[in-house]
Amino acid sequence: MLELEAVSKTYRLGAFGTREVTAVRDVDLTVERGEVVSLIGESGSGKTTIGRMVLGLAAPTKGQIRFDGVPVTGRRGRALKGYHRQVQGVFQDPFSTFNPVFKADRVFALVRDGFFPDVPTTRWRERVEAALHGVRLEPADVLDKYPHQLSGGQLQRMLIARALLLDIRLLVADEIISMLDASTRIDVLNLLGELKAAGLAVLFVTHDLALGTYISDRTVILRAGEVVEAGPTQEVFADPRHEYTRNLLAAVPHLHSRWDEPVK
Ligand SMILES: Nc1ncnc2c1ncn2[C@@H]1O[C@H](COP(=O)(O)OP(=O)(O)OP(=O)(O)O)[C@@H](O)[C@H]1O
């Protein structure tokens, strides 16, 4: 379904664009229907750049990104909108996505204005309520409220509900769990699991190996813009081939041991 082939992204820096930073280098990656693929790497490893390219918000310097065999790059206007009906992103900080001046459910109104202007108001309301139920939110708890009246978990779910209104097939979830507290994290992860069971594909971007293991079918480990390891999640974790992956694994806190004890 989604396919990245030898994708690189170089940013030019400085007033005259004389300095270059290669954020992503020669990355191959696929995501199939109903599959969750974790993209794991430390800060600065190029994860967000990949997510933005997949969403058509940035263009690769080299290589190809295809969705159902059709290039993503270069889509503009109506073609990009058509793509965004099928592929949407949810990002780390839900608070920054909402404008504090407007009620939070404005995000749904914007979807209606942009994609479904002909749907009558009552029908639209039903669709919004169904999408909210889909993410385990009670419409009365979240509709007609300002962002500051809602929790981070509620806002994050509303953003997932917004994506679901579009009948998407691929969700790019960029660190969506990082800012949530522990119990909400598990709820949102379980929600992603349910959506996956319903056929949704997820590119799950995280720096957190433990979250990646919990949810994904396949794992891609990124270091300084390059894929250092990729494979079925259980295999990557059971037998990490690359030293970088082993180091990342060693850095995951072990629940059964005290933090001041050396981990065996
Ligand atoms: N718009 C930009 N202009 C110049 N350099 C950029 C730009 N965006 C990202 N970079 C650089 O590209 C590299 C990869 O950044 P990216 O944000 O993709 O990494 P990341 O793995 O998502 O990191 P984090 O987890 O901290 O968000 C970094 O060196 C970053 O400084």
UniProtKB/TrEMBL annotation:
GO terms for molecular function: ATP binding. It comes from the Bacteria. It holds the Pfam family ABC_tran. Keywords: ATP-binding, Nucleotide-binding, Transport. Gene3D superfamilies: P-loop containing nucleotide triphosphate hydrolases. Residues 2-249 form the ABC transporter domain. This is Oligopeptide ABC transporter ATP-binding protein.
